[in-house]
Structures are given as structure tokens and as C-alpha cells.
Amino acid sequence: MLYESVLDELVEHRDLSDEALATLLSCNDGEVEEELHSRAREFAVSRFGHEVYLRGLVEWSNVCRNDCLYCGIRRSNPGVSRYTLTKEEILSCAERIYDEGIRTIVLQSGENPSSALSLAGVVSEIKSSWPDVAVTLGLGELPFSTYATLRSDGADRFLLRHETANPSHYARLHPAGMSLEHRLECLSELRRLGFQTGMGMMVGSPYQSVCDLVADIRLIQSFRPEMIGIGPFVPQKDTPFGSFPPGSPVLTLKLYSILRIMLPNALIPSTTALATVLQGGCSRGILAGANVVMPYFTPAAQREAYHLYDNKSSGQLSAIKQELASIGYRANLSRGDYQAE
Ligand code: 5AD
User: Fold this and answer.
1) What are the backbone dihedrals phi and psi of residue 111, each rounded to the nearest 5 degrees, phi first?
2) Burial 176-214 (b: 16+ CB within 10 A, else e)
3) Which of 75, 203, 271, 308 is the best mutation target for the ligand 1 pocket, counting ligand atoms within 8 Å of the beta carbon and taking the most?
4) Which of 53, 179, 309, 320 can pair with 234 through a Cys bridge, CB separation 3.0 to 4.6 Å?
């Protein structure tokens, strides 16, 4: 196979030239994809065995001050019925997660600085009730003082996708006033505060080029985040990008594999967005080198209102466990912190 030497080089040097990366991302050959996934899987299995970390996800508020052009819960979407769970409701979701044996609780919401600050009390209560859980937050860009409060109240990890490493592409995806530069400052601050930090991007977002994806890989290589969140863009009909086509699941899977080989210890989720655009996407992601899945524990009444995109996959714990079993993997419920090499 012509690509054999490219894959050999990727595995040996855990890197590739820009040109080779662009070629690998653009090539359309099932055999090459299979070989790439199988090499990535070897890296994952040698570190994690046939096990996948589960994280219990609670989408605790869909109120958002932001207006990202791709996102279904953007401020200017009037079709969303807005909710914020009470402290008691969040704690009861956390309890359900704990009772399932899962030891990472992910609290995700729209960007809302005042309620994010009040979440600090919930974080400290979770940590004092269940000291053996890790709390991961995904709350967007916040004042650094709020990040600091959340960290000192016990939050362990923070997910903040960079969305694209190309500043002009970033500007086309986001409202005026937002910048890649500030996003990266937030990520550096989160790391400085001692959070395990996650970054990532959508694949196939409007106006994205292969060159942009190569830049994303370079940024991830240089920041070396503990977690890497990547999913295909999925259009949401009430957004300005509602009529753009979805991103390619095949390309998404290739990125999981390339990044698994480059950063073998990274925590890489097989995302809900992937499962939304690809039948069996959850297991396909794992077989391409991902090692995390995030089942939902958002109460059913609110789940419908947390749609960043259309036709969102169900993400139910039982279905996920079944899908993992069908490929010979099992759930690892432990905290699953990042382990440095
Ligand atoms: N399609 C896919 N992913 C999306 N996100 C937001 N909107 C969409 C969409 N339409 C992703 C962004 C964000 C994360 C919380 O969800 O990457 O960082």
C-alpha cells in the first residue's frame, strides 16, 4: 500500500509533515483508514486495555449569553425553552451517576457567568459528599476569577474546545468580539490553575479547510491537552449554519486515530455528535482509538431542550454498555485521570 510508509512514519515518529498529514486526511481509501485505525487501536489497547472510561454527563443549564453561529442553544435562538437545574436537581443527577458506580461527573452548560459562579457551591458539595469523584466542567469562557473559584472549590478538569486553530476561520464561526486569542488565553489560565484541560474542534464546520485541520493538530500537539474533544459539525436548523452539510464521520475517525498516535495517553471521547451522524458511531470511535464515552444523566424533561444540533443521539448508559460489549470492550467506571507518559 502506498500509504504504508506514511503510517509507519506516523507511528515511528509520532508526527508527520504538514503535507503528509494533509494527504492522509484527504485520501479516500477504506483500506488506508482501516490500517490507520488498527495502528491507533494498538496504542490505545496497550495503555487502556479493552476498556473505555465512562463519564456521567449532566447538562445543567442551556442558558447562554453567547451567539456562536453553529450552536443550537445560542442566545438568539428563540425556539429553545431555557432551563437551569436547581442545586438539588444537579445533586440528584450526581447521585444517580455515583450509584451507577461512575466516578467522573461532567457538568456542562451554556456560557453564563453568574450561574457558573453559583455552580462553585454545587461542586464543593459534590466533592464533600463523594470525595472519590472527579468533577469536569464545560462552561465556556468565564472571568478568570470564576475559573479560580471553581478550581478552589474542587473542580478537577475543564473542557473548552478551541473550535478551530485558524483565527480567521474562528471569526467566521463566532460573533464579533470573540477571538481565538482569548480562547487560548482561557485554556492557558485553566491549565495554570491546575485543571486537567480539554480542547478540540468540530470536523467539517462551515468554511473549514484541510489546512485548518492540520493547524488544529499542530495546536493540540503543542498544548498537549489531557483531553481532546472532537466531533463532526451537525447542522441545527434554527442557526445561521442550519443548511450547511454535516461534517464527515470518516474524517472524524481519522483524526481520533492520528491524535491517539501522536498523544497516546490522551483522553479522547467518542462523541455524541459522531454517534449522531454515524450508525454505531460510539463503537466506531473506540475502534479508531478513542477511549472515553459520556452517557447522559440530564433529566429527561430537560434533555430535549439541550440540543446543540439536530437529531442528537440518545447517549443512554445501557445502550453504550451494550455497544461496547458488542466490540469486546467494557466500561471502566473509575475516575480515569490522565496519566503522563
Ligand atoms: N455540531 C457539532 N458540535 C457542536 N457544538 C456546538 N454546536 C455544535 C454543532 N452544531 C460543540 C462545540 C462546543 C461543544 C460544547 O459542542 O464544539 O464546544
Assistant:
1) -90, 115
2) eebebeebbebbebbbebebbbbbbbbbbbbebeeebbb
3) 308
4) 309
Query: Looking at ligand 1, which residue's alpha carbon is closest to its atom 2?
Result: 233
pTM: 0.97
Q: What is the DSSP letter of 310?
A: T
d(CA 173, CA 166): 11
Q: Find out whether the beta carbon of 163 lies less than 6 Å from any atom of ligand 1.
A: yes
Q: 117 by DSSP, 3-state: which?
A: helix
Q: Which three cell numbers stand for residue 212?
A: 485548518
Distance 231 CA to ligand 1 centre (A): 8
Which one of 141, 162, 202, 271 would you pick to mutate in the ligand 1 pocket, going by the greatest count of ligand atoms within 8 A of its CB?
202
pLDDT along the chain (341 residues), means of 10: 88 97 96 97 98 98 98 97 97 98 98 96 98 98 98 98 98 98 98 98 98 98 98 98 98 98 98 97 98 96 89 87 97 97 78
- The C-alpha cell that represents 131 in the structure block: 470525595
How many angstroms separate the alpha carbon of residue 160 from the centre of ligand 1? 11
**Residue 106, C-alpha cell as written in the block:** 461532567
